[in-house]
Amino acid sequence: MPKKSTVFFCSSCGYESSKWMGQCPSCKEWNTFTEEPVVKMKRAVQTASFSSTEPVLLKDISADDSKRIKTGFDEFDRVLGGGIVKGSLVLIGGDPGIGKSTILLQVTKNLVNSGEKVLYVSGEESLRQIKLRANRLGKDFDNLLLLSETNLDAITEVIKKNVPTTVVIDSIQTMYREDISSAPGSVSQVREATSLLMQIAKQLEINIFIVGHVTKEGAVAGPRILEHMVDTVLYFEGDRHASYRILRGVKNRFGSTNEIGVFEMREEGLREVKNPSEYMLFGKAEDASGSVITCTMEGTRPLMIEIQALLCRSNFGIPRRQATGMDFNRVNLLMAVVEKRGGLQIGDQDAYVNIAGGIKINEPAMDLATVLAIISSYRNKAIDSKTVAFGEVGLSGEVRAVNNARLRVMEAKKLGFKTVVLPKSNIDADIKKIEGIELYGVSDIREAMQIPMG
Question: Rounded to two decimals, what is the model's pTM?
């Protein structure tokens, strides 16, 4: 019997099946299976020319971390773990128009000016379009190699001929290989293209940046194996209509995944924000009820954000709840704790909770600030604008300790805040030594409800 010439792939996670199924058994998504031709194994012989056949002793391999290549953006280097590791494969995803191509073009400009040989491959724009965008971002692009091509085999030949130190592929969904009959952007094409680029990066020690499209859910389009194959996965977040952007590391084999980089979009391109806390608090309303400042940790960096809450009596039988920038279920949980443990009748209230600026945070340390914002809005009494609150709230109403409390207090003091509401278990000898700021320790939300409100 001849073997089946086509198989079915899940476009969400890459699960392979011999027949079509309504729901993917791996990721549980519905109607995601697409039929594609079987990829023949003979192609593996064609890509094996990059592989090394001689093993090397571990002691003879140099792994000096100081040899990282700087991108010219401290915020970008922070997310990468200190710079670009030679031979790494980096995937950058984000919504359309968020600035992925812009920041990579600026990074390539800095690399070229530092003496690196860079090849920028675009499958979505012509050379003239790239030139126009480069003129908007400034000059000093003269030594940047540009290529407008979607045939990955042709791109491979150009890379082998010019041997650049860094290559940018924009985007992976537009690349294709001639020996695969499926369309560009399909599961087979994306998987095989990434596999070839990974071999080039590792064997020729070329730094490769890949731009990936995202789905409506915000994940990188294509099979999940794409994220497993690369060394680093970065997401560009933010409202495309707002001026700031956040670069967040989701996966990083060479550094922490908790770091973020903050950028501001301007007419001349992206500019890194050195003090994101001050930037996030710009424009905060004074003496407004339902507004509380909290300090969250993103990696090693404390970040001050504003949590806003608005409660009003519901005109319908079922109150409406909405959360922007934080977990919706967490907001419902905290409101239940406030009603049960705090004694406030808020079950008939519409509730809207928002993190100002559009940033997305899921750290439990902002529970206490969320609770105080809900109480402040319900009472229609403002909390002092010079007050910062942080702490995790449990189902019993207790306020639990959080990590890096001293760094959070120091950040609040640096930005001119006068009072910090924090878990009582976090107040130790080191924090008490901090002068010029008042510490208000609480052990449960009932104590937190006693802080002065206007």
Answer: 0.76
